[in-house]
Design goal:
Structural class of chain A: mainly alpha
Oligomer: heterodimer
Distance between the termini of chain A: 28 Å
Number of domains of chain A: 2
Strand content of chain A: 5-15%
Radius of gyration of chain A: 19 Å
Helix content of chain A: 40-55%
CATH architecture of the largest domain in chain A: Orthogonal Bundle
Strand order of the largest sheet of chain B: 5-8-11-4-12
Strand order of the largest sheet of chain A: 1-2
Shape of chain B: globular
Largest sheet of chain A: 2 strands, antiparallel
CATH topology of the largest domain in chain A: Helicase, Ruva Protein, domain 3
Shape of chain A: elongated
Largest sheet of chain B: 5 strands, parallel
Number of strands of chain B: 12
Chain lengths: 119, 502
């Protein structure tokens, strides 16, 4: 088991996949991180050198990921609501925000646009 | 609630005549002539169930839930790959061929053996396995013991290797060849034959059996040093190269000792009496030092004289055979990324760089000062299309045919096709400094001749695989069917079991 940014990953997991398990790290950022520290894409977590683990952790802690990113996400929606914009209202009403029709098929908006949005 | 209606009165009503009553549900409609069977039969099942089931239940087609399938445990890690890469070199059901000759110092130069099959000596098989000379898809598993057909090119190679290790004028010569040819014309087996001859002559054999593995980004990489961050070293691959080399050349390397100091290695570990085998083993144990160790081993193997203080036990180094099987993968960008997430060119990998630099003439002395052969094969079945490499090979062929590079017939890259300049510069045919160093040549393997094909098919017949009368006419037919004696196609025809109608 290897600790990366406080999360324990089993050694057989791919490094790329493990990085992508963080909220806010996708294919692009994980590819960049791997390239930055010279880790090949098929590398397993167990094969990482100690220094590489520390480097990755340091790089991840500089990035806006996980709860910070979630908070920013919610703050953006909250700001829209508080300034009373149309988009904010639509968020609050649980309706599509970007001009989609509401006669049918608003499942996603119903699911996601709540007063307190879950991220 | 009690009904106001008296049941007693109702029962006393006279029964209505039977004919007037509507047929009740319970009454069975039966044929008048026979009633018992229908009456005794169990009540008929209701034909149409009301659709929809319970109240307001959807009546769309309902899928049956799949039962969870009992799965056995998947095979252990690496087991499937081991099975895929398994190499079987013997088939006890095949007949043993009496009087089959083996590769030896005499047979490798004997022109009378052309067209016959030379077996690989059993003690050498471990060495050949170590350098991964056998490939899984080759048909070694159908014969009693592995053997290869002696063709014209094999004899030429035998004479060459014999000359380089002999005492004649060819001693210490360096021959550089790029082996090309169509699919299954025996390029890889040609390399195998070269290795078997080199092992017979006690040469050092260094091979790269799968060049593709170095560029697919499946092994670790790191910048070589802070001074040159744009060149990359592959520690695991270097360690694997060392372990192949040590396993195959144990006997030769354990007899040679270190002849100088090496800057990249620990001074305490490398002393005057250290054998080259021990030197190489340090790199295998510590992949981080593998590349430096390989470089040290390389300088040692190419040493012509000892450094002062190391004269004791210095033995002249044997010639070397270097083979690479499938160079096209090294002629394009690799799958590795640099810091700016741009692909790294294969020529920036120091491993690749080292082996490709051998094709160029050495700066002050020959690229292999103790002599040897470089055999770099292309592959026809697993090779990326690299336009620049095609041009380079055409240029080599033209030069060999006597076309001068300044003549208009000399093949030039199309300026609109963006040929990779680094690839075009790989093969340098300028005059080498060292007198015994050759310029790269191209060797194109084609089909076997009819006589060689006959010897090859007789081998199948004598092994009990082929039940045919091997006549000239029959061989001629198969030779044509095999695209003019392409050896892989001949094998396909030979191993196909035929049952002749009685």
């Amino acid at each position: 088991m290897v600790f990366i940014l406080g999360v324990n990953f089993p050694e057989r997991n791919l490094v790329k996949k493990s990085l992508e398990s963080f909220f806010g790290v996708g294919n692009l950022s994980s590819t960049r991180l791997l390239a930055r520290f010279h880790i090949h894409p098929t590398c397993k977590v167990g094969e990482l050198a100690n220094k590489q683990v520390l480097d990755i952790t340091a790089a991840l802690s500089d990035m806006k990921i996980e709860n910070d990113l979630r908070r920013q996400y919610l703050d953006n929606i909250k700001r829209l609501k508080e300034t009373g914009t149309y988009r904010g209202r639509r968020h609050a009403l649980g309706l599509p925000v970007r001009g989609q029709r509401t006669r049918t098929q608003t499942k996603t908006a119903n699911k996601l646009n709540r007063m307190e949005r879950r991220v | 609630m009690v009904s106001s209606f008296c049941w007693g009165c109702l029962t006393r009503l006279p029964p209505a005549p039977r004919a007037i009553l509507p047929p009740t549900l319970t009454a069975q409609r039966v044929a008048s002539f026979h009633s018992s069977a229908a009456l005794l039969a169990p009540p008929a099942k209701k034909q149409n169930k009301p659709v929809g089931g319970k109240f307001r239940q959807g009546n769309s087609a309902r899928m049956k839930k799949k039962k969870p399938v009992e799965r056995t445990r998947p095979p252990a890690v690496g087991e499937r790959k081991a099975l895929r890469k398994r190499i079987i070199l013997s088939n006890p059901n095949a007949l043993e061929i009496p009087g089959m000759k083996e590769v030896s110092e005499e047979t490798m130069v004997d022109a009378r053996l052309r067209g016959s099959i030379l077996g690989l000596p059993v003690p050498m098989l471990d060495q050949l396995r170590a350098v991964q000379a056998f490939k899984p898809k080759q048909g070694w598993s159908i014969f009693r013991r592995p053997g290869t057909v002696v063709r014209r090119e094999t004899l030429e190679l035998g004479r060459l290797i014999d000359g380089i290790s002999g005492e004649g004028e060819d001693k210490g010569k360096v021959v550089k060849k790029i082996v090309t040819g169509d699919r299954s014309t025996g390029k890889t087996v040609h390399l195998l034959q070269a290795m078997s001859m080199a092992f017979t002559k006690k040469w050092v054999v260094v091979t790269v059996p799968e060049p593709q593995d170095l560029v697919t980004a499946s092994t670790a990489y790191a910048p070589l040093s802070d001074e040159n961050p744009n060149v990359y070293v592959q520690p695991e691959a270097s360690a694997a190269l060392l372990s192949r080399t040590v396993a195959a050349n144990k006997q030769v390397l354990s007899g040679l000792t270190v002849s100088r100091e090496h800057a990249g290695l620990l001074k305490s570990a490398v002393k005057a009496g250290t054998t080259l085998e021990d030197l190489a083993k340090m790199g295998i144990q510590d992949p981080a030092a593998a590349w430096n160790t390989f470089q040290a081993l390389w300088t040692e193997l190419n040493a012509t004289s000892p450094a002062p203080g190391f004269e004791k036990n210095f033995k002249p180094r044997p010639p070397m055979l270097v083979t690479v099987d499938g160079i096209a993968h090294w002629m394009k960008e690799s799958k590795y990324n640099n810091v700016d997430v741009k692909p790294i060119h294969a020529h920036d990998l120091v491993f690749v760089q080292h082996f490709l630099s051998l094709l160029k003439p050495g700066p002050s002395q020959s690229s292999l000062p103790n002599g040897g052969v470089l055999l770099y094969a292309t592959s026809a079945s697993n090779s990326p299309t690299v336009y620049a490499l095609d041009v380079v090979l055409k240029q080599l062929a033209a030069r060999q045919a006597g076309v001068s590079p300044s003549s208009p017939e000399f093949p030039q890259p199309d300026p609109y096709l963006n040929a990779d300049k680094r690839v075009l510069a790989t093969i340098d045919t300028s005059k080498p400094v060292a007198p015994k160093e050759g310029i790269p040549e191209i060797q194109t393997l084609g089909g076997l001749s009819r006589e060689e094909a006959r010897g090859f098919m007789e081998y199948f017949a004598r092994s009990g695989l082929l039940r045919e009368n091997i006549t000239d006419a029959w061989v001629g037919e198969k030779w044509s069917l095999a695209g003019g004696g392409v050896v892989g196609e001949l094998e396909r025809l030979g191993r196909r079991l035929r049952v002749t109608a009685a």
